[in-house]
Amino acid sequence: MPGYSPINGKMLQVPVGPGQEVYSKRGAMLAYTGAVRFAPTATAGAGIAGTLGRAMAGESTPLMHVTGQGSVMLGHHGLHVEVVDLRGDTLYVEADRLLVYDASLQSGTMFLGEQGGLSGVIRGQMTGQGLFTTTLTGHGSCALLSHGGVVQLPVQPNRPVYVDPQAYVAHRGQIQNKLHTALGLRDLIGRGSGEGFQLELTGQGVVYVQASERKI
Predict the structure, then answer these.
(1) Average pLDDT of the segment spanning 53-62
(2) Backbone torsion region of residue 96, taken as left when φ is above 0, otherwise alpha when ψ lies between -120 and 50, otherwise beta
(3) Which pTM was predicted?
(4) DSSP state string for 174-190
(5) Cα–Cα distances in Å, from 132 out to 49, 79, 81, 87?
(6) Which of 23, 30, 147, 183 minimizes the number of CB atoms within 10 Å of its CB?
C-alpha cells in the first residue's frame, strides 16, 4: 500500500487498510474516502501503564484510532506537515507535534533528564518544552507539525549542532542533548529573550528545526 502523500505543504493524504491503521491528532481529519472509521483512543497502543505515564508526564494529547479501508486527508490549523519514515530507529518528538503515525510504531515517553542529566531537566524548565518527550520506534511513518516548515540538520561526531529551544521540533539517531548557555550570568540579567540558551546536540543523527520560535 502506498505511504503518506503530501497534498501540499499543509495537508497530507494517508491510506488506511488492513495492516495500515494509524493514530491521528483528534480534530485533524479534513476529509476522507472509503469505509474509514474514527474512534477516540486513550491508550494509542501504549497500554494502560504507558498511557498513565504519558498523562503524568504531560505528554498526552487527544488521538483518534483510524481504521477501515480508504484514504484520509489530515491537517491542523494550517501548520506545515513533514513526513518522517522510520526504519527500525527511534524518533524523539513532543506529543503535540505529531499529526499522525502508523499504529505499527511503538510509542513511549522518555524523561529528558536521561539525555543530558540535570541539563535535560533545566532545559524543560527554561524552554517550556516540558520534562518529557514522546518516542516512536520501529518501522513505519509519521508526520510532524511545525510553523513555517522544517529543515533537517545532520549531527555528526565532533560536529555539534546548536538549536534555539523554541525552534527544535524533533530528532532521531544516537544524539545527546543538553542546554548550552552562551552568556554569563551577568549578561542574562534583564534579558527576556531565550537566545542566551541553545540546545547542544552531539552524536550521530538528524535534528528537525522549524522556521519559527512559536509553539503549537
Answers:
(1) 54
(2) alpha
(3) 0.81
(4) EEEEEEEE-S-HHHHTT
(5) 16, 23, 23, 23
(6) 183
